[in-house]
Please model this.
Amino acid sequence: METTNGALGRKLRMGLVGGGQGAFIGRVHATAAVLDNRAVLVAG
Model:
C-alpha cells in the first residue's frame, strides 16, 4: 500500500480542531484520517 500523497511525496500533516472534554467525534475523525497511513496528526 502506498503511504504518500501523490504530488506531495509525503504524508499529509493534519491538525484537528474541535471536540471538548468527553467529546467522541473528534477521536473518530482522527482515527479515520490515519487509517490508510497517508496522514499524520500533528496538532489537536
